[in-house]
Amino acid sequence: MARLVARALILMSLVLAAPAASAPKGFSIVNNTGAALRELALRRVGDRAWQPLAVAAPAGSSARVDFTEKDCAYDLRATVVGVGQIVWSGVNLCEVERVTLNRDPSGRHWVDYD
Predict the structure, then answer these.
(1) What share of the chain is helix, strand, coil (3-state, %, to 5)?
(2) Helix (H) or strand (E) segment spanning residue 16
(3) Of 15, 38, 62, 114, which is most buried, counting CB atoms within 10 Å of its CB?
(4) What is the pLDDT of residues 68-88, one digit of tens each?
């Protein structure tokens, strides 16, 4: 019985000491839309409230976002100059260093990850 308790305590200490490998810890947004991005914001998938991000990204540039939320799935919204608002839905912010926001001339938009 004592061995079982000892093993359980060791296992619990390993689980509690392990870093949350999948938790987002900040990322870079790369603007591949062909126009400047303004008024970037994000929200958890399923939420209604947008959280503004204090970044802007000229066409072809990147901007760093400090981000420590525990969830992974988010919607990103930006005003694309000359186009209007675009929402990239279901963006996975876990285990990612760079999120590239893409838009082609037909208006199709998507996300690439690094």
Answers:
(1) 15, 45, 45
(2) helix 2-17
(3) 62
(4) 888 899 999 999 999 999 999
Residue 26, pLDDT score: 85
Q: Residue ranges of the domains in the chain?
A: 22-113
**CATH no. of 22-113:** 2.60.40.2890
Strand-pair category, 109-113 with 51-52: unpaired
Q: What letter does residue 26 receive in the DSSP assignment?
A: -
Helix (H, G, I), strand (E, B) or coil at 13: helix
Question: 102 burial class (0-12, 13-18, 19+ CB within 10 angstroms)?
Answer: middle
| Token pair belonging to 85 | 């608002």
pTM, whole model, 2 decimals?
A: 0.76
